[in-house]
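Regression report. Comparing outputs from two consecutive submissions.

Submission 1:
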Amino acid sequence: MAPIWQAGFKDVDQFCGPVEDPRCNKTLPKTGPGFPTKAAKFDYILGRGVNFRSCRLHTPTEDHRIVISDLTVADVPRPVCTVT
C-alpha cells in the first residue's frame, strides 16, 4: 500500500491509512476476540483530489460491510465513519 499512500490517495475512513490506528473501522464485521483484526481491513475505498463528506459502513451480512460515502471537491473536514 505504500505507493498508494505516497501517490496522495486517502481512505474514506480518516483513521485508515499508512499509520496503524486502532480507530480504523474494519471492513470485516467479525472483528475482536477470536477474529484476526489485522486482516480485517482488506477493502480500501480510496480517493485523490476529492474529500469525503460522509462515511457509513453498513453491515447487511456477516462477511462484509458496504461503504457509503458522499464525495466533494470542497475542502471539508473528514468525518468519522459510523457503523450500522
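Submission 2:
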Amino acid sequence: MKNKPSKDSLAVALDAVNDRWSLHIVRALAFGASRYTEILRSVGAPRDVLSARLKKLAETGIIQARSSESGVAGYELTQKGNDLGQVILVLKRWGDLYKPDDVSQVDFTHTACGNAFVADVRCEACGSSVKSGELAVRSTEHEG
C-alpha cells in the first residue's frame, strides 16, 4: 500500500504546480509573455500540454485570460500568481547556487532601491534569515 501525504496547506500548494510545466508558465508570464504563442515559445511545451496547463492554472486562480483593445486574447498572472512568483525567486536563488557553469544566470534589480535583488527567506517575527535545519514542523488543525 502506498502512503499518501496528508492534506495540508503545503500539500495543496505543491499540488497546484506539481507538473513539469506550470512553474515555467508562471515564469514566462512574469517575464512579460502574455499571448499563447509567446508562452509556447518561452516554455517549449507541446501545444496540447500547454493548453491543458493554462486551463488548470486558470481554474486554480493562478492566471486569468485577458483580452486587449485589439481583441487578441492573452493571459496574465492574478494576485495569487504574482504571489507564487516569490516562490520562484527563492528557487532562482537555489538555481544560481547549483547551476552548471555553462548555464547563464538571470539577475534582477530591485526597482525601489536600484540594487541587485537576491531572494531571502526571513522569519516574520524576528526578521532573521532562515537557514535549512532551523525550522520545526508544527501543524495547526483546521477546525470545520
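Expected: both submissions complete independently.
Actual: both completed, but the second showed a warning that disappeared on reload.
Relevant detail on submission 2: The two ends are 29 Å apart (CA to CA).
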